[in-house]
Write the structure tokens for this entry.
Amino acid sequence: MFRIGVLELGLTCGLLFLVLFIPIIVSRFYARVDKRLKNIENKIDKKKK
């Protein structure tokens, strides 16, 4: 048996959080921005017509 220190456990959990959750949050943010840009483009296209 080996002992895992609190620091190693915290570092491992932190790295897992960065690897798994940060890309999900970033992709949702970009999807939201893309949706807003499409709405703005549609409004501009409607005004031109």
